[in-house]
Structures are given as structure tokens and as C-alpha cells.
Amino acid sequence: MLPPMTTDHLVPDDLRSLYHVREWRNAAGVLSTACPAEWNDIIDVLRAFRLLRSEVLTAGGGLSPISQQINGAFDSKGWKETKFATKIVVDEVEYVTPTHLVDCFKGRVALELEWNNKDPFFDRDLNNFRLLFDLRAIDVGVILTRASELQGIFDSLGKGASYGNSTTHHGKLWPRIEGGGGGGCPVLTFAITPALYVDDGPDALATALRRKSERDAKRKPRGKTGVSPTAGTGDEDTEIG
Fold first, then answer.
1. 88-116 confidence digits (pLDDT tens)
2. Which of 47, 83, 92, 135 has the fewest CB within 10 Å, making it most exposed?
3. Which residues contact 135 (CB under 8 A, 6 or more apart)?
4. Is residue 220 part of a domain?
5. Does 207 fall in a domain?
6. Is the predicted pLDDT of residue 225 greater than 90, yes or no?
7. Cα separation of 187 and 22, whole Å?
């Protein structure tokens, strides 16, 4: 029997050195050929992203600045937080099949950001992809999460307790995909690795602390358009730690 064909070689080498990259059902090939504009957006955002020490230290008490950085980058490229109104009709009887909000949607690509949620959020995301793919609303799903190896950095910064084993990291994601959680939907995953970590110094930390204080004083409401400032947290303006 021939080994299964893969297309993850289509992911640029520089991204493969910064993220753990895995695909399901030739997702990279689908993205690069059927959704080239969206694929270029994803490449641009992932290339520009850096995991800043100041943002790790000031995460918590709402949507983390890490998620805000990523959401803002996609929002600037026209990606929208989207909720689909779906239903199935059987013998003229309608059955509503609600979906959860998709963090970032553009064209026919759904992208979910799972930086630091409880790991069952992966089940929700994959089920969403499965349903939307079966209904022909999307061609491919993308999940951006963190690599398990970041735990060493979190521990060294005194933040390890905020990033437990039962939260969203790539070690919790792939068993779910391989177990069929996304059905037939092609899925491409990126996990942020320690290669992206940058110590941006005390001045940046002081600025980040000031911004956190401002966020805590006045939480931002969910936006009406674009990528919601809460994207990456399910339907709530909160993350763990």
C-alpha cells in the first residue's frame, strides 16, 4: 500500500521552522490552490507574529494581548468573525443546526485561534469545521494554537500554572483530528513554538502593564464587524491565566 499523499511541503520553510505544522486531508494543498488570497494572508500574519515576553507576563483577566495581536492582524486583512445560520430540512420540517462563532472567516476559509482555553474547545472547533464543510460553506479549516514546548518558557516566567495540561496546545489537538473530529474537512494546524519567543525588555513590559491596567478598567465590547476582540476565547471575553 502506498503511503498517503501529503501537501504540507507547500507551507514555506521559514514558517515550518517557527511553527509545528500538520495537515489533515491535504489542507495545505486546498488552501494554496483553491484559496490563494486567504493563504497569502495566513502566511503574512504568521510571519509577522512574535511571542513577546511582555505579553506573556501581562496575559490574564480578559483576552490576552497575544490573542489581540493575532486577531488584529487578521482583522486588518478583512477577516471577519462570523456565525452561520444553518438548518436541515427533512420532509418540509426544519431542524436548526446552530454553529458556534468562527473567530476569523474570509472567502471559504475558517480559522480558529486557541491560545489558552480549556482543551474541549478543540472539539467545538472541529465539529464546527465538519458541519460547515458538509454544508459546503467552507473548503478548509485552520487552527492556530501553541506548542507544548512553550511550557518551559511559561514556567521560567512564573506563569506555568496558567497554562496547564488541560488547556489548548498542540498535544491535545492532534489526537482529536486523527480521531475524526473534523470529519472530512481538510484542516491545517500551526502551533507556536519557542522559536517565536522574544524578550522585548523592561520598557515594553512597563507599557504592557499600563495597557493591561487600562483593559481591566474598561473591557472592550464585542465588535459589530471584523474580527471580534474576543476571538480565540469561544463566545466569552475571557482566557485562562
1. 788 888 877 767 789 999 999 999 999 99
2. 92
3. 84, 86
4. no
5. yes
6. no
7. 8
Q: What is the pLDDT of residue 215?
A: 77
- The owner of cell 489581540 is 68
* Radius of gyration, alpha carbons of the chain: 18
Residues 41 and 79 sit within 8 Å (Cβ to Cβ) = yes
Which CATH number fits the domain that encloses residue 165?
Answer: 3.40.91.20
What average pLDDT does the structure give for the chain?
Answer: 90
Nearest residue to 55 via CA among 63, 64, 46: 64
- Please state, in angstroms and rounded to a whole number, the distance separating the CA atoms of residues 96 and 93: 10
Q: Which one, of 113, 116, 239, 96, lies nearest residue 169 by Cα?
A: 116
SS3 for 103-165 is: EEEECCEEEEECCCCECHHHHHHHHHHHHHHHCCCCCEEEEEEECHHHHHHHHHCCCHHHCCC
Query: Domain range spanning residue 146?
Result: 14-214
Please report whether residue 59 resides in a domain: yes
Residue 141 in domain:
yes
The predicted model scores a pTM of 0.89
Collapsing DSSP to helix, strand or coil, 58 comes out as coil
What is the per-residue pLDDT for 224? 44
Q: What is the pLDDT of residue 94?
A: 84
- How many distinct structural domains can be found in the chain? 1
Whether 233 contacts 239, CB under 8 Å: yes
- Whole-number Å distance between alpha carbons of 154 and 160: 5
Type of residue numbered 156 = S
Residue 232 has pLDDT above 80, yes or no: no
